[in-house]
Amino acid sequence: MPSKNRPRTLKQMAARAGFTSRNTSRHVTAKNFPVDPARFSAVGAQVFSLGRTTEPEILAEMERRGLRPATIEELLAFCARHRGRLPLPNKHVIAALGTAFMLGGVERAVICVLAENGRPHLAPWDAVPGRTWFERTSYLGMPKSAPRK
Q1: Mapped to the 3 state alphabet, what secondary structure does the chain carry?
Q2: Position with higher pLDDT, 136 vs 71
Q3: What average pLDDT does this structure show over 90-105?
């Protein structure tokens, strides 16, 4: 994507991916996620599932595949690339583990795309250490060669 057409703000990135204030959590803000427009790319993105598992097992699988957790920019770029045809069955989630932030200042969360009634929503998902992720969760990984902040 030419840089002059690249979205520059989190709001613009979300809009490019088809998210509006109606289907985006109030926690997805520029304050929680300062963005780098140069990172709005989904080149080499991979989505995979592991069934019921823990975050260390997910990260080990990413390592095995030569991947790292996707950032907010990469998650939104992936959604923009697949706008209207996300590989996401109803009641399933795609988690971007590289988006961890403190929800309400007390609980660790990551940003996910959640399918509800055929429509994607951008929302935080509880990611406290030791949590077991459920079967309907997929994870977005990026090649380790892709730049990261």
Answers
A1: CCHHHCCCCHHHHHHHCCCCCCCECCCCCCCCCCCCHHHCCCCCCEEEECCCEEHHHHHHHHHHHCEEECCHHHHHHHHHHCCCCCCCCCCCEEEEEEEEEEECCCEEEEEEEEEECCEEEEEEEECCCCCEECCCEEEEEEECCCCCC
A2: 71
A3: 86
Average pLDDT over residues 129-149: 80
* Token output for 120: 């994607």
* Total-model pTM: 0.88
Q: In angstroms, rounded to a whole number, what is the distance separating the alpha carbons of residues 106 and 80?
A: 31
Amino acid at the residue 66: G
Q: Classify strands 93-103 and 137-143 as parallel, antiparallel or unpaired.
A: parallel
Going by C-alpha positions, the residue among 62, 30, 60 that lies closest to residue 44 is: 62
Buried b (16+ CB within 10 A) or exposed e, 108-118: ebbbbbbbeee
Give the amino acid at 122.
Answer: L
Question: What is the predicted pLDDT for the residue at 1?
Answer: 42
Whether 106 has a pLDDT exceeding 80, the answer reads: no
Q: Give the side-chain half-sphere CA count within 13 A for 55.
A: 16
